[in-house]
Amino acid sequence: MSASDLPDELWARVLELGAASSALGFRDLCCLAIASRRLGRLSLHPALWSALLSRDFPSQSQPSSSSSTSTSQQQQQQQQVHPKSLYKTKFERHKVRIAEARRRAVFEAEARVLACRRRLAELEESMRAEGERMKAAAQELDNLERVRRASVALNVWQPQVVHGRQKQLVQQCTVSVDSRVSDLNMELKVCKQQIATYKNSYNKEKHKLNDYEEALKRAKYHPLQDSHTSGIINEPRAKRKKLK
């Protein structure tokens, strides 16, 4: 006995069981509709699409008790429309909602990436400023060390020309060398600690940026334009077809 010998009642029951058990989806019904005239006629049975409506759009299929009047009017209108047309309408609305959700996810991911890049730029500027400050302190410290050595050398015999230069160098220094050297050493220490803190924050932000960029790529990635139905129906992409 071949499949073509089965009566329509048995085929209809098989399709109903498939729709009720989630083994049969709207794409399968669309494929069956173009397989043969007989299956095309059976796949249009209202009970099948009503089952798919209740299964794939449960929150929209079951009305709330607070709007009984408007719900009864909607039910009367829906009874005049084939369940397949209702399914198609809700399916298209679902596509729009999924597309909007994807756009929001992309915008949010782009905002996180831009904020992270701004933070990295701020940290780079802070590290550059601290580096310049540390460089200036190191240069001043080097000059003070030269003044200190020159003040010590004044008490030691040396040629008059060298003695004059060292005396001039000492006279140009208007601050207490020992006190200023201590302050500069402390400033260098603080600069190094601050730069280390900035580098630590920079590395963390860099990791965040990599994660945010990966999340942005995932949010933008949709190889099939009709893949937005995965939220209600998980089927192999090879079987996805446009609902007609």
TrEMBL record:
Annotated region (Disordered), positions in chain: 59-86, 221-244
Gene Ontology annotations for the cellular component aspect, listed alphabetically: nucleus; plasma membrane
Residue ranges with Low complexity bias: 59-80
Keyword annotations from UniProtKB, A to Z: Coiled coil
Coiled-coil stretches noted in the UniProt entry, renumbered to this chain: 106-147
Entries under InterPro entries matching the protein: F-box-like_dom_sf
Protein name: F-box domain-containing protein
The organism of origin for this protein: Panicum hallii var. hallii
